[in-house]
From TrEMBL:
Protein name in UniProt: Uncharacterized protein
Topological relation to the membrane, as annotated: Multi-pass membrane protein
Keyword Transmembrane helix: yes
Family indicated by similarity: Belongs to the acetate uptake transporter (AceTr) (TC 2.A.96) family.
Entry's Gene Ontology BP terms: succinate transmembrane transport
NCBIfam families given in the database record: AceTr_1
Subcellular localization, as worded in the UniProt entry: Membrane
Record's keyword terms, sorted: Membrane, Transmembrane, Transmembrane helix
Species per Swiss-Prot/TrEMBL record: Nitrogeniibacter mangrovi
Keyword Transmembrane helix: yes
Primary location class: membrane
Transmembrane feature ranges: 7-26, 32-51, 63-85, 97-114, 121-143, 149-170
GO CC, one annotated term: plasma membrane
Length: 188
């Protein structure tokens, strides 16, 4: 009996991460308000990405399990933080948010190292994500103009995540590798 083909949860995780990151950066560069960021952060970047991460557990992919589940939790926490500030519940100062981002920067640094063992496209995505977090850290601790720089830089990060998503989807539907992702930066 032939095993039933399973979907790859990474395509949903990458879609949610990329789309929510992209829309947050539209806000950070001043193109739109924060409302859509909150709803995407709760549903697509948060819930959908977290479900994808939990599904990665079943595939035995610890990197995907950790990354999608954790960044799903990041989006939910960020959305709740913004809601808390809006409704004066557990208000977080700019410094509080800065330390929140510093912790996520350290977490991202660990995954950045792991990404270099997978393939170039993922290493590029995590390099851009780490750089974006560092820029946002600096923006929250005295250099607010860097929020816009981080916004444009993280738009490229979001599109890089979508490139990997497209690589996975196209490889499945075309039955061959259409979009190359490159070799790992760290071998053996």
């Amino acid at each position: 009996m032939e095993a039933q083909k399973q979907g790859n949860p990474a395509v949903v995780g990458l879609a949610g991460f990329g789309l929510t990151t992209l829309v947050l950066q539209f806000h950070n560069v001043g193109w739109m308000g924060v409302g859509p960021v909150i709803w995407l952060g709760l549903i697509f970047g948060g819930l959908a990405q977290m479900i994808a991460g939990l599904q990665e557990k079943g595939t035995g992919n610890n990197f995907g399990y950790c990354a999608f589940t954790a960044y799903g939790a990041f989006w939910i926490a960020l959305a709740m933080l913004l809601i808390g500030n809006q409704f004066n519940i557990y208000v977080s100062s700019k410094t509080d948010i800065g330390w929140f981002l510093v912790a996520w920067t350290a977490f991202t640094a660990i995954l950045w190292i792991g990404s270099m063992r997978i393939h170039s496209a993922l290493a590029i995505t995590f390099t851009l994500l780490l750089a974006g977090f560092v820029l946002l850290d600096l923006a929250h601790f005295g250099y607010p103009q860097l929020t816009v720089v981080a916004g444009y830089e993280l738009m490229v990060c979001a599109l890089s995540a979508w490139y990997i998503m497209a690589h996975l989807i196209f490889a499945d539907v075309f039955g061959r590798d259409v979009l190359p992702v490159g070799s790992p930066w760290i071998k053996a």
